[in-house]
Structure formats: structure tokens, C-alpha cells
Amino acid sequence: MLNIQLETYDGAVYELPILLRWDLEFTGSVPCDSLSAVCIYDKGMAGVLPKATRFTAFQDGAVMLRGVVDAYEISLSQQGLLAAVEGRGMAALLLDNESEAITYERALLSEVLGSHVSPYGIPVDARRDVSGDSYSVTSGSSQWRALQGFTRRFGGFDPYFTREGVLVTAPLWGSGKLLRIGDDSPLLSLRKREDRYGVISEVLIQDKVQGVAHQVVNRAFTAAGGRRRHVLYMPRSTPDTRRYTGEYQIAQSALEQLEIEAELPFPFAAFPGDRVSLELRRLNLSGQYEVVRARSRMDGDGGRTELTLSVR
Questions:
Q1: CA-CA distances (angstroms) from residue 299 to 19, 170, 186, 304?
Q2: How many degrees, rounded to 5, is the angle at CA 148 between CA 249 and CA 88?
């Protein structure tokens, strides 16, 4: 059974009554994890809901998601008097706050975390030591973008959040368990889609100030007959910046090229970072894939998990 505790800004803790329905979506990153839940309204909520700032969802004592309360709602219908709560994972604090423009001559991970994460009281598990020269954060960038841009450029990975709300500075993919789905698994549905549209085959970066052009090629997509060139114009840049920018654009364009959606008849079957091994002979589908999104929910039809799988 899923239970949800609310925490108010003045230190009170309140547990919601038995939930009628709930929906938790996990990404580990951006867009951030989210929660929605509905329960019977109790008069004790009158002094709690307007003050609630944090939530923690528990399943049999284990934390399923900790995050920020975004909204609540009270409604009267044929079902009776209901209360609904909506929220997002702790990544919301970094997404909702903007950074000042800043340039690091020599940036250390501890310094970036101190400037862009620590002010929001987010616990950090710094598993990798990352550093780099000449890193700039532009005005208007979110604190998440400031951190993500740094770890991606100098460490080659995106940070992620655990379900407990801890920021981990390490790659998410391959960090969890392995789930096997075969022909005898209780699979409700499955859909595979491969989309070539939007995948970039080549990025040509033009530095007009220095009169330099740099080409980055997606060799795998080009070898498969793909042709989609993008041209980017940059101000004065370095060879490393041009290479990183081209590789980043190609990598981002390929993220949604392959997508598999699977639905299982029970909640919390897997989470982002887990891998799924598919052996479905009737669909001629086999291989290992990463869970990039997991949605667990319960309503009048029971509990289930919707998984989005891809290659990372």
C-alpha cells in the first residue's frame, strides 16, 4: 500500500488518508519525477494543505519518491469530498531557480555544487570528481542547467536524483537492477517504434570570427543511409568547444530514435537506471534496454507500471 506524508513549512507532518488513486512518474532527471494522488478529504487537512511544501511517498516502508508540493485541490462530486495533491521530485528546486551569469576559470565539482545546489538544501552523493577549465553559465540558465552543462561537458554524464531526493553526480544508465521480460511474463501490452526523423547525420560548426569550420559526423546513422545536416554558427570558440557542441547535438537528436513501451500489471516494476532484458520470440524482439521513464499508478483498474525503454 502506498502512503504519502506531507511536511509543512512550520515543521508539521501529516499522513494522507487511504488513497483512492495515485500516479507516480519517474525519470531521474528532466522532466523531473512527479506525483499526483487523490484521497477522501478530512477536516484535519484544513490547516495542513495550504502549508505543505514537501511530500514523501512510501510503499511498505520504502521511500518511493520525495519531492516538492506544487498544488492541492479540494473538490465535491458524486464520489464525495475529495482532496488531491500534486508535486515533483527534488530536481524541481534546481529547475525552478535561475543562476546568475558566471564564468569559472578553473571549475571544480565542489565549487559548482556549492554555487548551484547547496543553497537549496539538497543532499548530494558526489561519486565522481569532475573539473574543467573555462566554464561559463549564461544569464537565465536554471541551476539544473548550470550543473548539468558542467558534468556533461567535463565528465560526459548527466547527474540524477534518487527517489529519496539525493542528487548523484554519476551516470544514471546501468545503475540499477535487471528486469527480464519473456514470452511467459505477465505483459499487458508492448509497442516498439523506431523514428529516423530528427536524427542528425552531420553538424557543421562555423566560427566566423576566426574563420574556422568544424565538422562532426554521426557515422552510424550516415552508414545506415541517414542524411540530415545542421549548421551552427558560434562566436569565438576553441576546438574542444566545437567538438563538444557537435557531439552533443548529435547525441541529443538520437535519444528518441528507438522507443519501446511496455505495460506490466503491478506497480514499481522498474525505475530509470534499471535495465530490461527482452526475449519475446513472438515479436522477434530481444536485447537489453535502459528504462528511461517509469510510470506506476493505481486506480479503479488496479495497479500497473508503464515503462519506456530505449538505448543510452
A1: 9, 35, 19, 9
A2: 110
User: Which residue in 131, 161, 127 sits closest to 144, CA to CA?
Assistant: 161
CB 51 within 8 A of CB 12: yes
Nearest to 178 by CA among 264, 261, 263, 274: 274
* Residues in the chain with pLDDT values less than 70: 236
pLDDT digits (tens, 9 = 90+) for 127-139: 888 999 889 999 9
Contact 307, 297 (CB under 8 A): no
Strands 258-264 and 167-168, sheet pairing: unpaired
DSSP string, 193-241: EE--TT--SEEEEEETTTTEEEEEE-HHHHHTT---EEEEEESS--HHH
pLDDT in tens, 140-164: 999 999 999 999 999 989 999 999 9
CA distance 296 to 304: 6
Rg over alpha carbons for the chain, rounded to the nearest Å, is 22
